[in-house]
Amino acid sequence: MNLIVVGASYRTAPVELLEKLSLVEGPQALPRLLSGGELSEAVVVSTCNRVEVYAAVPAFHAGLSHLGEVLSELSGVPAEQLANTLYVHHGQDAVRHVFRVAAGLDSMVAGEAQILGQLREAYQQSTEADAAGKVLHELLQQALRVGKRAHAETGIDHAPRSMVSAALDHAVANSADCHRWLIIGAGAMGALSVAELTRRGAGTVTVVNRGLDRAQRLADAYGATAAPIERLPELLAQADVVITATASTGHVLTTENVGAARTGSGKILTIIDLAMPRDVEPAVAELPGVRLVDVARLGTVLDPATAGAPVCPRSSADREVAAVEQIVAGEVDSYASWLRGAEVAPTVAALRARAEDVVSAELRRLTQRRADLTDEQRADVAHTVHRIVQRLLHQPTVRVRQLAAEPGGEAYASLLRDLFDLSVIPGSPDHTTVADVPDLKGGA
After folding, report:
1. pLDDT tens digits for range 46-97
2. In 10 A of CB 242, how many CB atoms?
3. Could you tell me if residue 392 is left (phi over 0), alpha (psi between -120 and 50 degrees) or otherwise beta?
4. Superfamily of domain 2-159 in the CATH hierarchy
5. Which fold would CATH assign to domain 163-299?
6. DSSP letter at 223?
7. Which of 33, 109, 215, 429 has CB atoms 3.0–4.6 Å from 166's, for a disulfide?
8. In this UniProt entry, which residues are annotated as the site Important for activity (predicted)?
9. Ramachandran bin of 266, using left for φ above 0, alpha for ψ from -120 to 50, beta for the remaining angles
């Protein structure tokens, strides 16, 4: 079984392409990805600055080709255009990439913790769709654990805790007036924005959402104010900073509604667009008195190596990143050992099944030759023969599992199959089911 990661991020793709890829969401994409059999398992991770598919594939090239076709189909981006922006990680490099993502090392803001929740959500969607098998269950559970270790055992949290906090730092540093804040959207990013503003003791915070009930619940939780979407023009005219983070597939703020709201204002309006696809029409940045900060802009001003500089000196930040990299390296080695051991399991199972078939055939022959044996005698003979076979196989199968977990260990499984002429179906029989997975709400 091959493990691959295919994706695009703010580092490799323009925002316009990421917007289209962001429409490829797990619940809709997973059935299509698993159709045809080129992918045996899949998890889709879609955030404001990355879209990635983690997949287990029987054949690397066929799986990669199918994955590219599906991404092109669902996003509407021509395959040749995607080919120039997608990155591919395979095998141990794929494991390392997923663990670095979970630890926040591949984020726009180094060490940001929000990615753990996003990975957990993607994993749960795949589990509910029965799209994650043994390989991805183990990968994602270990990745979530690696992310938790990174935050618990190092000081990487000294950097801004999320892209939201980093965006707020940038907005405050570049705005003279930040007293009236308007949050558009009451989802995860909107909630994180309100929580961060409350923690900082910001001025007046108003939450606007298409569903007023959800906005009211969020506002009540943090002492903010909720308002219906119909008041957006009035609130735009009053705001100093607007943070927009909705799930809309179209533009929420346009040159028309922003321009109308700010006519004659004379004040600078800072708009932070954290949505993907973007909530704000790019041309809004050209309006007089408007400063627009979106994912593309954040990608140019936020260097993961220096994002924590205001509170964590560069040398210290480098040490914390290096410490997390060390954790990731050790966990990658551990996972690689597990994966090699898991790959020999079907071979061991096939060997034991072959032994059982031989024993059963010989016992049937004995029954035909010795009709005089009582049922009790036949049961005693069967029990004895089974015990002999199990004892003979025990040490070799334990040893081959140990050897398979070492680098180059896949050769031992291959040798075992050749010696006993075993036919092994990839991925069988050790398939992890949903019932085998720990409670996702409790974290991994």
Report:
1. 887 789 999 999 889 999 999 999 999 999 999 888 888 899 999 889 999 9
2. 29
3. alpha
4. Glutamyl-tRNA reductase, N-terminal domain (3.30.460.30)
5. Rossmann fold (3.40.50)
6. T
7. 109
8. 97
9. left
Q: What is the rounded distance in angstroms from the CA atom of residue 242 to the CA atom of residue 82?
A: 33
Kindly name the residue from 48, 67, 101, 156 that is annotated as catalytic. 48
What is the three-class DSSP state of 260? Answer: helix
With beta carbons less than 8 A apart as the criterion, state whether 270 and 174 touch. yes
How many CB atoms neighbour CB 442 within 10 A? 6
Residue 343 tokens, joined: 């790959």
Residue 52 is assigned to a ligand binding site: no
Question: ∠229-230-234 over CA atoms, to 5°?
Answer: 100
Q: In Å, what is the CA distance from 311 to each residue of 167, 171, 196?
A: 15, 17, 16
User: Cα–chain-centroid distance for residue 41?
Assistant: 14
Q: Does 50 carry a binding-site annotation?
A: yes
Q: In what order do the strands lie in the sheet with 204-209?
A: 225-228, 204-209, 180-184, 241-244, 269-273, 290-293
What's the chain's length in residues?
Answer: 444
| C-alpha separations of 290 from 280, 282, 331, 352 in Å | 12, 11, 46, 71
d(C-alpha 400, C-alpha 332), whole Å: 22
186 is in an annotated binding site: yes
Comparing 2-159 with 163-299, is the CATH topology the same?
Answer: no
Q: Which pTM was predicted?
A: 0.64
Are the CB atoms for 238 and 177 separated by under 8 Å?
A: no
- pLDDT confidence band for 161 (50 / 70 / 90): low
Q: Which helix (H) or strand (E) holds 207?
A: strand 204-209
DSSP H helical ranges for 174-211 = 188-199
Q: Is 214's pLDDT higher than 80?
A: yes
Angstrom distance (rounded) from CA 33 to CA 304: 32
Which residue in the block uniquely carries the two structure tokens 């991770």? 45
The number of beta carbons lying within 10 Å of the beta carbon of residue 391 is 9
Q: Is 433 annotated as a binding residue?
A: no
Contact 284, 292 (CB under 8 A): yes
Q: Is 48 a catalytic residue?
A: yes
Three-class DSSP category at 7: strand
DSSP, residue by residue, 26-77: HHHHHHHHHTTSS-SEEEEEE-SSEEEEEEEESSHHHHHHHHHHHHHHHH--
